[in-house]
Amino acid sequence: MGRARTNIIFTVVTIAALLSSVVVLWTYIASTPSDSVFRLGYFPNVTHAQALYGITTGFFQEVLRPDVTLEPMAFTAGSTAVTALLANQVDAIFVGPSPTLNALDASGPDFIRVIAGGSSGGASFVIQPGLTLDTNASFAGKKFASPQYGNTQDLALKHFLLTKGHRTLDEGGDVDVINAANAKILSLFELRQIDGAWVPEPWASRLVLESGGKLLVDEKTLWPDGRFVTTHLVTTKRYLDGHRLLLSRFLNAEVTITLRLQNLTLSAMDTINNALANATGIRLANATIQAAFGNLNLTYDPIRSSLTTYLAWAQELGFLSSGVDASRLYDLSIPNDVLTKRGLAPVSLP
What we know:
This protein is of the alpha/beta class. It has helices at about 1-30, 50-55, 60-65, 80-85, 95-105, 150-165, 180-190, 205-210, 235-240, 245-260, 265-280, 285-295, 305-315, 335-340; strands at about 35-40, 70-75, 90-95, 110-120, 125, 145, 175-180, 195-200, 215-220, 230-235, 295-300. Strands 2-1-3-10-4-11 form a six-stranded mixed sheet, with helices on both faces. A five-stranded mixed sheet has the order 7-6-8-5-9, sandwiched between helices.
């Protein structure tokens, strides 16, 4: 009876998602992007540092002047961000790999394009200070958290648990994984209502430095050379085809900011901290934001090979079907042209 009920719920959710996708696609087809406004989506996370810096300092707007106005749009969930992109409510978004794959699955292979990188690293699994997880069996019966069902950290956590021989309760397993906003996860952790969480920066550093958490896994240690995509820049094929000059100007600015932030100064870090405070109402302690930046790498390389791995994980865990086609997802012609003109090595596709 439980399995039948689960299948019914899954079917209803799937039908609702398909109907939502049809509405989103019709809205997109019926509308036309503006030539005088560039609507940029981003998250108030350290892993979106280029967006925070470029928006707050006015550097992006300066590059786009005089004929284009920047309209930044802050999101707190990847699903909301990609839905806005598909519905032509935003022109480009800094977003993680899992929401990108979900958008690809919903829209098909010729709808969205990854056109640049953003950040690598900056995600960790933090557990309660008194907890010991030194054997595979020790994970049984524990309760962990991730920011959103099916998001990038949720995918990483559940795949990690799978390598330890565990599935989640909703899959008939013995580990409970709940989904909550990052701020809520921090509260749950402090109240000892969860055993740990897989979260992006600066939340991982906050769990450690502000709540006494213990780092169990820095996700960099799970990837070749410690490199994996955390944030990249996504647009639609239609917007890319119709606004190449605008995107070239924007990506030139992103490269400049990335290089600047790779040699992070206290002034730049303070600028980003101010942007986070304006968006969230909370200013991070200097030690926290320094630790957060120390755990990630800013890059304009989207690190395609890691997205291929995320796709395999999503399919293994049942988040995506085996038919998702990511072979045409990337178009790096604009950033590579920008990089070549600046005498920098282009990013390559494996």
